TrEMBL record:
UniProt entry keywords in alphabetical sequence: Membrane, Transmembrane, Transmembrane helix
Transmembrane regions listed in the UniProt entry: 29-47, 59-78, 84-102, 114-133, 139-158, 170-190, 210-228, 240-256, 262-279
Protein name as it appears in the record: DMT family transporter
Transmembrane helix in keyword set: yes
Record-stated family: Belongs to the EamA transporter family.
Membrane protein topology class: Multi-pass membrane protein
Signal sequence range: none
Residue ranges of domain EamA in the record: 3-128, 142-279
Coiled-coil spans in chain: none
Length: 281
């Protein structure tokens, strides 16, 4: 399950590269969230899945942080010119932040795990070193990416502490519904989103990216993430994100022909070693 999660989660930057040229970031995310509801609501009604009535508020807050805050921050940063390598490095700080905050949710981080976290961030740095370009980088894009980092970190900790156990089908509907409510005003104001969706170019590449985002990322990967949060310590789960930039770089090399240097290969091995230090019991 962790390996499958890493592979699917790593396609996020690939999807952004396919989809963002044809739609503004918040509009794309809203279409993605609405698509999730169109898939899950009939399933929930058909299967009569239980609703977590006593946890709705906590689940909604965690969803806004994990979905709206994280994705909007990173996608808007990329749209403003943030290189994928830099954004991956910034978001790659999440396991470190989660480890520092672990005592707040009753978890402890062992010295071996701290060593693994440091190995992981070094590995991520080596992978994206060749792709990092700070020329022309705006403070807005940096701020948005840091917002995404803080949002997914807080969301992971909040969900682990307040609502780790709930029915994934109905809980996901609650989270994406709350995210739509939060993002919709921003999309209308900043991206001039209207009922005709005239800011969207419905090309085959865009439709493919949207469908993959709905089915694989927002349903498949999120279900796996929530299952991992439910079963494992937050530090162990977030350390898997160290494997995302190396895996994404490998995918970009295979799909787009982007350079994947020897330094990147060494970084991938270092990141894998770091994750092994963290998750090994």
């Amino acid at each position: 399950m962790p390996l499958l999660f890493v592979v699917i989660w790593s396609t996020g930057f690939i999807v952004a590269k396919f989809g963002l040229p044809y739609a503004p970031p918040l509009t794309f995310l809203l279409l993605r969230f609405v698509g999730v509801l169109l898939v899950l609501v009939p399933i929930v009604l058909l299967m009569r899945a239980p609703w977590p009535l006593g946890q709705i508020r906590h689940i909604a807050v965690a969803g806004v942080l994990l979905q709206a805050g994280y994705l909007a921050g990173v996608w808007c940063a990329i749209k403003l010119g943030m290189p994928a390598g830099v954004s991956a490095l910034i978001v790659g700080m999440q396991p470190i932040l989660t480890a520092f905050a672990a005592p707040l949710i009753g978890e402890s981080v062992k010295p071996r795990q701290w060593l693994g976290l440091l190995f992981g961030i070094c590995g991520v740095g080596l992978v994206v070193a060749a792709k990092i370009s700070l020329i022309g980088l705006s403070w807005q894009s940096i701020a948005l990416c840091v917002l995404g980092l803080l949002s997914i970190t807080l969301g992971t900790l909040y969900q682990k502490r307040n609502c780790a156990h709930f029915d994934l089908r109905t809980g996901t509907i609650i989270q994406f519904s709350a995210s739509i409510v939060v993002l919709l005003p921003f999309a209308i104001f900043y991206e001039h989103l209207g009922p005709t969706l005239d800011t969207v170019q419905w090309t085959p590449r865009f439709v493919g990216a949207l469908l993959w985002s709905i089915l694989a990322l927002s349903i498949g990967a999120i279900f796996l993430l929530f299952a991992l949060i439910r079963k494992s310590a937050a530090t162990r789960v977030t350390s898997l994100l160290y494997l995302t930039p190396p895996t994404t770089a490998l995918m970009a090399w295979m799909i787009f022909g982007e350079a994947f240097s020897l330094l990147g290969m060494i970084g991938m091995l270092v990141a894998v070693l770091g994750v092994a230090f963290v998750v090994k019991k």
